[in-house]
Amino acid sequence: MVAVAILAAGKGTRMKSRLPKVLHRLGGRSLLERVLGCTSGIRPTRRLVIVGYASDLVKESLTELPDLEFVEQKEQLGTGHAVQQLSPHLQDFQGDLVILNGDVPLLRPETLTSLLQVHKDCQNAATILTTQLSDATGYGRVFCDDNNLVTQIVEDRDCTTAQRQNHRVNAGIYCFRWSALAQVLPKLQPNNTQQEYYLTDVVHFLDPVMAVDVPDDQEILGINDRKQLATAYEILQARLKDSWMTDGVTIVDPDSVTIDDTVQIEPDVVIEPQTHLRGQTVIRSGCRIGPGSLVENSEIGENSTVLFSVVLESIVQPNAQIGPYAHLRGRVQVGEGCRVGNFVELKNTTLGDRTNVAHLSYLGDATVGNRVNVGAGTITANYDGVKKHRTQIGDRTKTGANSVLVAPITLGTDVTIAAGSTVTDDVPDDSLVIARTRQVIKPGWRLIPKSTDNNPS
Ligand code: UD1
Ligand code: CA
Q1: d(CA 172, ligand 2 centre) in Å
Q2: CA angle 317-281-345, nearest 5°?
Q3: Which CATH number does the domain 244-433 belong to among 2.160.10.10, 2.30.110.10, 3.20.20.70, 3.30.300.20?
Q4: For a substitution probing ligand 1, which of 24, 84, 101, 185 has the most ligand atoms within 8 Å of its CB?
Q5: DSSP letters of 175-205?
Q6: For residue 130, how far is the Cα from the chain centroid?
Q7: Closest residue (by CA) to atom 26 of ligand 1?
Q8: Where do you find CATH 3.90.550.10 in the chain?
Q9: Catalytic residue among 89, 167, 204, 359
Q10: Which atom of ligand 1 is nearest to the CA of 171?
Q11: Rounded to a whole number, what is the distance in angstroms from the first to the last CA of the chain?
Q12: Which of 169, 230, 434, 449 registers the highest number of CB atoms within 10 A of its CB?
């Protein structure tokens, strides 16, 4: 049996943030969600999260994972003190406890699975993930004998100059035989520069404790400050983009593109430069996204294009052209083969199939039928200063340039609206609407200047 405990009670002082460190986001997920994600391979029977600083916020961020158990560490007196808080909760637990620092988000699930396997195979009391870092600043240094058995772990700030030459570091990822750990936890003392209870000190009381090096040292990057957060983002992006390209996605200029790892992309998608895909986004096969686009929590149907545009919380059906310079937000649905572009904003609006809104329009809270042509500059006046109102436009209707549709309003099917009309009343099917003052022409009329001199030099 395996239980997992995640240390997430610290404030993360070096982040200089009001938000607890573990809630800082990395590519669409919090650090803590990522660390939890690493545990998928080991199938733990219990998952405990040690919370303290801003614990309500931390708990709230994980409400979608109802199996989690939260353990309070009221004062943050160190990683050892955090683990001591587990004892009352794991009194009857028999098995291995995997402990993960909540700020090590790039660990691969496979790495944890093989660490646990070594731990079991060797029947260790503890097995610790380590690596050799060229710059080991800030990490605890792990000292071993010739058989990789750990003799001590010394925090960077507690190291002598000689000890600092050891570049084998503690990743903050551990497997423990719980019965052994539980016995020695009360022995920890805060004898160090920070006067904290260090989890790493349990190695003095346990035997055998083995160190296992992870070959890819990027996996163990701990996030203590904003610079490390940015480094982690770079590593994550490189990993994700490599994997999408392997899976048949063209990324024209990977350095200028960012992709959250919650995004799904089908093969034969082309992602042009300066494009950012975020959240629960799905890009179907044959799409061309970018240059210069942001797509967030949206689905883009097969063979559609999104050019220099922003698409948020929206669904676009296949063969649609979005942009240049379109903004879709607030649950927009675009039908098959539609064209939406050139400075068009759609908000909470549904377009049927083969409908065009091609130039300079705002449609808010509108339901538009199939094969509608929304003329250049058509605007739905959906807000009366107090409430939002809906506009309905029937199939094959055409609005003239600069039409204003004052909602609530319903235009029937096959309606034509004359250019420049301000339409305030519902329009029945098959009608022409002209809602503007008639043009007046006064022949022979000329402006008479105020000056008496009719021939200014
Ligand atoms: C820790 C390790 C260090 C290791 C490094 C790897 C110790 C003493 N040191 O150092 O050997 O190289 O991680 O990244 O363990 N936390 C609590 N309660 C507390 C204190 C911390 O829950 O009272 C949590 C933090 O929220 C964080 C994690 O424990 O998620 C690690 O704490 P942090 O202060 O970042 O430890 P490091 O100094 O990085
Ligand atoms: Ca840390």
Answers
A1: 8
A2: 60
A3: 2.160.10.10
A4: 101
A5: EEEHHHHHHHGGG----STT----GGGGGGT
A6: 29
A7: 10
A8: 2-220
A9: 359
A10: 6
A11: 101
A12: 169
Strand, coil or helix: 301: coil
DSSP conformation letters of 231-245: HHHHHHHHHHHHHHH
Q: Please give all residues whose beta carbon lies within 6 A of any atom in ligand 1, as ranges.
A: 7-10, 22, 50, 52, 73, 76-79, 81-82, 101-104, 139-140, 153, 155, 169-172, 198-200, 222, 224
**So what's the pLDDT on residue 358?**
97
Q: How far apart are CA 379 and CA 405, in angstroms?
A: 6
Query: 2-220 is classed in which CATH architecture?
Result: Alpha-Beta Complex (3.90)
What is the pLDDT at residue 448? Answer: 86
327 counts as catalytic: no
How far apart are the CA of 221 and the centre of ligand 2, in A? 9
At residue 293, φ and ψ (nearest 5 deg) are -125, 155
Burial 366-385 (b: 16+ CB within 10 A, else e): bbbbbbbbbbbbbbbbbeee
Write out the residue limits of the CATH 2.160.10.10 domain(s) in the chain: 244-433
pLDDT in tens, 337-362: 999 999 999 999 999 999 999 999 99
Pocket test for ligand 1, best of 7, 51, 79, 163 (most atoms within 8 A of CB): 79
The CA 103 to ligand 2 mean position distance, Å, reads 6
Give the position of tokens 């700020």: 103
CA dihedral 86, 89, 93, 96 (to 10 degrees): -30
Distance 185 CA to ligand 2 centre (A): 20
pLDDT at 453: 59
449 preceded by a cis bond (ω within 30 of 0) = no
pLDDT value of position 284 = 98
Model's pTM, two decimal places? Answer: 0.89
Q: Which residues of the chain have pLDDT under 50?
A: none
